[in-house]
Each structure stands twice: as C-alpha cells, then as structure tokens.
Amino acid sequence: MDLLEQIGRNAKLAEPILRNLDANSKNRILRRVAKELVDDTKAILAANEKDIKAGQEAGMSAGLIDRLQLTKERIEAMAEGLCQLADLDDPIGEVLGMKKRPNGLLIGQKRVPLGVVGIIYEARPNVTADAFGLCLKTGNVVILKGGSDALASNTAIVECIRKSLAGEQVNPDAIQLITATDRETTEAFMKLNQYVDVLIPRGGRGLIQAVVHNSTIPVIETGTGNCHIYVDEDADLEMATAIIINAKTQRVGVCNACESLLIHKKVLRDLLPVLGEKLGKYKVEIRGDEEVCKLLKDAVAATEEDWGKEYLDFTISIKTVPSVEAAIAHINRYNTKHSEAIITRDYDHAQKFLEEVDAAAVYVNASTRFTDGFEFGFGAEIGISTQKLHARGPMGLLALTTTKYIIYGNGQIRP
Amino acid sequence: MDLLEQIGRNAKLAEPILRNLDANSKNRILRRVAKELVDDTKAILAANEKDIKAGQEAGMSAGLIDRLQLTKERIEAMAEGLCQLADLDDPIGEVLGMKKRPNGLLIGQKRVPLGVVGIIYEARPNVTADAFGLCLKTGNVVILKGGSDALASNTAIVECIRKSLAGEQVNPDAIQLITATDRETTEAFMKLNQYVDVLIPRGGRGLIQAVVHNSTIPVIETGTGNCHIYVDEDADLEMATAIIINAKTQRVGVCNACESLLIHKKVLRDLLPVLGEKLGKYKVEIRGDEEVCKLLKDAVAATEEDWGKEYLDFTISIKTVPSVEAAIAHINRYNTKHSEAIITRDYDHAQKFLEEVDAAAVYVNASTRFTDGFEFGFGAEIGISTQKLHARGPMGLLALTTTKYIIYGNGQIRP
C-alpha cells in the first residue's frame, strides 16, 4: 500500500478516538506533551542541529536559518503554548440554537471536530507542536507535511508527541508526519480527499497559492495584507500620526502592518510634514503621488504597482484623495481584503467606511495591527483568513470545528 | 478582452451596489421580477419550446425533457418562490457578538454578502430564477453557467430579470449568464478566482465531482446521501416500521431517502416479516445479509457494494448488527455523511448515536426525510452540504453570507 494511503487509513482509525476525547483528557495530554518536549530538549536540539548544518551547507539565508533554529528557550515557548491551549475552554460539544419545530422535532447544531486536518508548512519546527496542540484541543487528527529542511527537527518533535500519546493510551496516529520530501507526494497529499477534511497551508504567499491551486481538498486560506489607513478630512491628526507610526513600524514583516496611506487633500498640508518627519526617524521610505512628493522632498514617485504592494518592510505608499468615497473605492480596488482603518471624527464617514469597505477587519480610529487571534481575545490563533468561506479574519479554535444537526424526535414522519 | 474576463469585471462593478442594497429595495426587486416573469410567460415558453425541440431531436430521455420543460404553472411557481424569498428576514447587516476588549476596542462580526457567487447547474431552467433570488436576497452578484440544453430558456429568463433590474435602476449585471457552451469556458470559469468568491454546483454527482476536482475557487459542495436507519434492540417496532416506510418510499429519488437499514439481531424476527410485507406493497427490492435472506424469501443477497450504494430507487439494503456500537461503526464506514437515524427507547443508545455518528444530520426516532431547508425552518434552501467547511447540512440564506469584523476604537495602538 502506498505511504499516503497508509497514513490516511491510520488517520481515519484515530479519528473517532479523538472526536470522543473529553476535555479533561485532551488537556491532560497537552500538558504531558509540553512536559515531555522540555524533557526531550537534548534530543530535539540534536536533531535540529542536523537540519541547521545541512541548511548552512546548502547556503540557506540567515533569516531562514533563524526560523529553522531551535533553542532551549524556543522549546520552552512551544511547551508554554501547549499549556495555554490546555487552559482554554473546549469548544467541542456545545449545542447551538436548539429549537422545537411545529411538528415537535427538536433541532440543534452541535459543535464537533472537523475530523482529519492536513497542514502544509515551511521550515519552522515550532509550527509542528503548535499545529498538533490546536488540532488536539479541537478533537482533530492532524497530518503534517513540513518543509524538508526541517525534517530531522520535525521528526524528533513528532516522535516525542507520539510517545506522550501512547503514554496516555491514545492512538499515536492522532499526529502523523509525512516524511517523504518529493514533490509528487506533496501533490498527492493535496488530493487525498478520501481521508483529509481540510487542508491549511501555513507560510508565505508562494506556498499558500500552490495549495489553493493544486488542492482538491477544501482549503482554509490565510493571506497577505495590503492594509490601508485613510486619514479623513475630519481626523484628529495627532491620533492619526500615532496610529500610522504604530501600524507601519511596530512590526513590519507581518500581514496586518500598514502598507498604504490615503490622506484627504484638506489635511495633507497639516499632516504630512509632521508625519514625514516621524516616519523618517524610522527610516521609512515613502512612495507618494504628485501632491505628496511636492510636500516631502524625500518621497519617491509611486508607480501603479505600488498601490497593490505588500512591502513587509520599512516602506509605505501615500496617496491624496478628494473624499471618503474615493478612499473606499481605492481600498476596495487595491486591498487584499485583510485590515483597513479610517481615522475620523465624522460619524457618517465612520459608519460609511465600516459598511462599504470589503475586508476581514475594518477599523475606526485604531491600528490595523490588532487583527490577531490573541488581540481579539480568542486565546489561540490558527492564522488570519482572507477568504470568505468558513472563517474570515483571525481564526481561533472555532475555525477547526464544524457542526452537525442533532434531532430529537418521537416518531415523526414526513407528510 | 475575453468573455469571462468581461463578465468578471462587470460582476465586480455590480458588487458594491448589491452589497449596499437595503432590504426594502431587494424585496421590491424580487416582487417585480416575479411579476415580470409571469408577464413574460409567452416569450419564456417560446424559448423553452426551442430547447425542448432540440432535446427531443437529440434523443434526450423523457426524464430529462421533463426537467427541462417549462409550463405556465412552473413559471408561476418560480415567481411564487421569489415572493416567498421577499417575505423572509434579510440576514445582511446583523452584528454578532459585539464585545469590548480590555483596551476599549469594541469588536463585533457583521454579516455581509459573499460578493460574487458562481453557480454551475444542469438543464433545469427553474434553477435560474431560484439562484438569482437567493443571491439577490443576500446581496450577492450571481454568474450563472447553466446546462447548454437549456440555453434558450435560461437566456429568456435572465433577460427578463435584467430588464426588471434596469427598471429598478439597479445594475443588471447583478445577474449574468455565461452563454458559451464549450468545455474550455466552463473550466476557465472554475478558475476565475480573481472575480468569483464561491462556486456552487447544483445537480447530480458527476457535475458536483467535476466542480470539486477542477475548481480553484472555494466550492460549496452539495452531496449524495447513503442514509441509514438503525433499529435498536429496544425500539418501538411499530414506530420503526412507519419511519422506515416513510424514509424509503415517500420520495425515492432524493438525497435524504433511506438507502440502508441496520437491525439489531434481537428484534430481527419480530420486525422483518411485518416490514418485509409493507415494503413489498411498495415493490421495494431488498438486498439482505444472510440472516435477512433466511427470513425473507424475496430478499436478494447483498454484496459488499450494496452497503455503500445510494440507490435513489425502490431498493434497500438490510443488515443485521449485534449492537449499537456495530451499527455506528458500519454507518461511519459506509455513509456519505448526510442523514442517519436510530430508532430506540434506550436513553444511552440514543445519546451515543447522536454523539458518535459522523453526519450532517443525526436523528433519534424520526425520518431522515426531514433533512431539508424548509423542514428545518429556514424558509429557503441552497442545497444540502455534506462537506464540513462553511456550512453543513441544509443550507438556508446564511450559507450565502460571510462576516467581517468591525472595530470601533478611539486611538488604540498596539503596544
């Protein structure tokens, strides 16, 4: 039997066991895995060292090496993450909206696990423990396909988790790692509809697009963020400046950072000199339209391409707009449906912006950087969905669940 | 510009208009379209006559001709369906779970349209008006790709709807029909991610599987139903018989009809003779296991294939099981995750069945035939989802919506 077929069957055998685990058991397992990961630090670091060495020999960049690197502290952080999951409420089993129909049928929606979750990710070994924890907490079996550069690290982590599961008398196939690193296996995994209920890519744009375009399994797509801040004619300019600096510079490499600024022409002259100076302190490069370049001599002329760009860097595009309508139209044309903000004191403009901007999260008078599962109070985050089906915006544990209708009758037949 | 690109761009231009239509406007449009469809009966029937003639000349089966055929009454039913939609509550705009975070941000989820919905269906012209009505009610733009055998009928219906939209000063591109009938266009439509937010196939298994496997756009999958009824050792056998007869024979060609029966060995001798006689009256063919064939001389021996089969006909498979656990295991192995029922007076068995059977709808002491948007009280039905993402079970208007987070702040920045 081929490798994936075997993995799929193993997962299906584990599925009913995971689905029926009560919250106490799941939390006990999470805490045990946390402890055993720390106990196995030496073995995990030794395996990681092999990956690092191979990466260095292959000329991997310093940034990628850093993402691949594990340390005692990083293993402790992984363990801490699992303990935090154990402390969260279990979403499974809740019955929503149970109502009696006129014929006496009592119908409700019960929250249940998805079943088998596939996760495809890059060479970040910390995702291995994190993905397991999220799936276990929600009663799902997980099949992992990590980046081949992290194979030794992932294998060590998965072995440690499987050992803990066996110690708790739970089928270790609750987590399986696909160790084959060839392209054909990855593509076949994306078409394993018979065994896998949902596929989640975690990583950069290239990985996500490859999964979206090749998978026949339903995908939860996490996406890129070309996030805008629009400074309205009626904005508090001090607040605007503080929010822009925060959203642009607090962390530049993340999807909820601000990439593009729209400024109402009436406040351009008042805002831009102060803002330009503050952005200058952070060495933020400005790509501006004609009006902006006139006022800021360091600004570079923006091209059409700039309006659609997610820089993930100390760069921002700035455009002058004549109205809130023009700002909304620009955003809906160029955004990636992630996070958008208006800074205003005008009630109608605020409501209009909230109503008409099409994005996962739309803000009035706050930084786009809050689009995050922890900041939204979910206690965990799978990713930030920029698609519209199933989950949109920051995804907490609920995104790894589905519902089934349960119906209590007493002999009803359909007339 | 190619045809699909033009259709996609038109849809995007119509999208913000549809998104912002208030409920009164949408309901007025629905009622106007209903009236104009009836007014245009003559033209629509004339177009339909062309399709019917071409179908007959091409040797189309009587069943397919019947599905394709429109009559005055069927057009009135289409119009009536639109008026019923107008009477339903508008799901758009509701804000769910708005809560204040510790930093003062007020975060809620607002229900909004999906955007642009693509629908691929077979030669059933009534789906044209129905799909438009569901999409308009939920503020979505719709792009239709109907079966080529119904092209003249669909064109006439779509033209009538576009005329009504124009009469209401709404962009008629709220509905567009893809008139090209070649395979390449259909396949390109399934990859129009840039313009289409979700694709819904409506039709038989072949169509649905083709869309699931070829689409790169997220798909809402409606599926087949290999639905089981399990008669427990503690069942009220009279109730069991009534439910089985209803679920098997009330309408055989539908996905929520019962296809397979599991009977606890302790009640087999008491139930089977009576049940066999009643099923015989409906000329239901029985495919049974060894025990069943011993007791019912008309029964045919079931093969392994029978357990997984959706007959959609007057045929049923019957298997003897030793326990509720065996029944659950059999169902979870062979079912299509649609609708499953247990007939029992045993509290523990009822709860266990509800808990452990993996399906969109799980019943105690009621007919599987109730799995239906109207029977569940939604007032409308898009289809019955057997996938686990986004929507599971009967889908009402909510399945055509998504949410966006709206956040009211007063200057918050992320520390």
Note down, in words, how this protein is organized.
2 copies of one chain form a homodimer. By secondary structure, the first copy, chain A, is of the alpha/beta class. Chain A folds into 2 domains: 3-222 and 395-407, Aldehyde Dehydrogenase, Chain A, domain 1 (3-Layer(aba) Sandwich), CATH 3.40.605.10; 227-370, Aldehyde Dehydrogenase, Chain A, domain 2 (3-Layer(aba) Sandwich), CATH 3.40.309. Chain A is 44% helix and 21% strand. Chain A has a 7-stranded parallel β-sheet. A 4-stranded parallel β-sheet of chain A has the order 5-4-3-6, with helices on both faces. The radius of gyration of chain A is 24 Å and the shape is globular. At the A-B interface, β2, α10, α15, β13 and β16 of A face β2, α10, α15, β13 and β16 of B.
Structural class of chain A, by secondary structure, is alpha/beta
Q: Count interface residues per chain for the largest interface.
A: A-B, 68 and 69 residues
Indicate how many domains the architecture of chain A comprises: 2
Number of helices of chain A: 15
- Give the uncertain stretches of chain A in residue-range form: none
State the share of residues found in helices of chain A, binned by percent.
40-55%
**Into which percentage range does the β-strand content of chain A fall?**
15-25%
CATH domain class of the largest domain in chain A: Alpha Beta
What do we call the CATH topology of the largest domain in chain A?
Aldehyde Dehydrogenase, Chain A, domain 1
What integer is the average pLDDT of chain A?
A: 95
Mind summarizing the main beta sheet of chain A? 7 strands, parallel
Give the strand line-up of the largest sheet of chain A.
10-9-11-8-7-12-13
State the separation between the terminal residues of chain A, measured CA to CA.
Answer: 49 Å
